[in-house]
Specification:
Rossmann fold, 44% helix, single chain, 397 residues, 2 domains, 13 strands, alpha/beta, 17 helices
């Protein structure tokens, strides 16, 4: 690959601040790609844009176009979408006014390649034929929606089922809009129901190993769980910890405290806070939450994709406990680099084991850090991404 080329990046959210997984992935991809190419960013936004966003992003982007979408536009689109056949999240993020701004920006930029994150952006570019396009599925969204149906109320289950069927069909359809395709893990790739899904290239997430390092800090909490606390899989995991796991831990270690740290905690979670369950809400520097805790625990029960929270915790040398669902895309060795619990009894037993065995805790933490150093470098993965975008990559996994 020679010479700097123009890449038009299309996102459904402005990738700053880094409070959601898709933003974190997009930000680091843009940052890495900008080292060798000119990046032009188009993003929609359904909320007021952070005051520092453009200043931060212009360090890596040659030009930025943000198309604001109003709650009224969204409501109208979702209503009309009820009678359509695309996923509701596509109707949520794709709007006529934003499409017009995208078309104008695309014409102005005249890019050498287009890179879209998530199928919800596919409608913006599907009509473009003269520029090579790449889609980052990121996660298998249809499979994630199917998992949300588990334990949902009757009404929610009906809505989730409708979205699941639409997502499954659209993930297949959107494949044909793009020349190149990437996804976060082998596990997610197999859930994209397309006869050529084996051609989707695996681009994992990474972790900033200089930023996320062990901190010498007083430990205020035994357990930590982090994430966007308005995101259903995180809410589900937090509730599972509070209602299912912690009562079993407290039988043997009654003073154990759980810190739930992350933006936008829902009322249901806030109502459960007490002297042993601390809900911090958003923190300016998530490393402080990691530094104050002894063990990181994220036994995800639903959702898809690679858990950034686990990468960050392992990088900061916290011993980690997770579930088979979350460890499958991560690929850490259970009992050696991470602890994996199949049910609430085993998760609770793992907490107790680690709390009582400081030597093993430290060994697990060291191995966890070594694991992410070896396997999860942003630079390594994003060099591969650049090759995919320009059709120069033949390695799929």
């Amino acid at each position: 690959m020679t010479g700097r080329k123009k890449i038009l990046v299309v996102l459904s959210r402005v990738p700053y601040p880094l409070d959601k997984g898709d933003k974190l992935r997009a930000f680091n991809q843009i940052k890495s790609l900008s080292q060798h190419h000119e990046i032009y960013l188009f993003a929609t936004s359904d909320t007021p844009v952070n005051a520092d966003a453009e200043k931060v992003l212009k360090q890596y982007c040659k030009d930025i176009c943000i198309a604001s979408i109003s709650k009224f536009e969204i409501a109208c689109n979702l209503f009309l979408g009820f009678f359509g056949n695309k996923p509701f999240q596509v109707y949520y993020f794709h709007h006529r006014s934003a499409q017009k701004r995208f078309d104008e920006f695309n014409q102005q930029v005249n890019p050498d390649a287009i890179f879209c994150q998530l199928i919800r952006t596919a409608e913006y570019v599907k009509h473009i034929s003269k520029v090579p396009k790449t889609i980052d599925y990121q996660d298998a969204f249809a499979k994630g929606m199917e998992r949300r149906m588990q334990g949902a109320s009757f009404i929610k289950k009906a809505i989730y089922r409708m979205e699941y069927e639409r997502l499954r069909q659209y993930e297949h359809l959107a494949f044909h809009y793009f020349e190149h395709h990437v996804i976060i893990s082998v596990e997610d790739r197999k859930y994209i129901l397309h006869e050529d899904n084996h051609k989707i290239v695996i681009i994992p997430n990474g972790v900033d190993l200089d930023y996320f390092r062990e901190q010498a800090q007083e430990k205020d909490f035994e357990l930590l769980f982090t994430g966007n606390m308005s995101y259903p899989p995180n809410i589900n995991c937090a509730m599972y910890l509070i209602k299912e796991v912690m009562p079993l831990v407290w039988k043997q270690l009654p003073q154990t405290r759980l810190l739930i740290s992350g933006t936008s905690p829902v009322r249901e979670l806030l109502s459960l806070a007490n002297d042993k369950i601390i809900i911090s809400g958003r923190v300016d520097d998530i490393r402080k939450s990691f530094g104050r805790s002894i063990i990181f625990i994220a036994p995800m029960q639903i959702g898809t994709g690679l858990q950034n929270k686990l990468l960050e915790a392992m990088a900061m040398k916290l011993p980690c406990i997770t579930s088979p669902l979350a460890n499958a895309p991560l690929g850490a060795q259970s009992g050696y680099e991470i602890m994996v619990g199949e049910n609430k009894q085993i998760v609770a037993e793992l907490v107790i084991q680690l709390m009582l065995d400081e030597t093993f805790r430290k060994l697990l933490a060291e191995r966890g850090r070594a694991f992410v150093e070896t396997n999860y470098s942003w630079e390594k993965h994003n060099n591969k991404l650049a090759a995919v975008i320009f059709g120069e990559n033949t390695e799929l996994a």
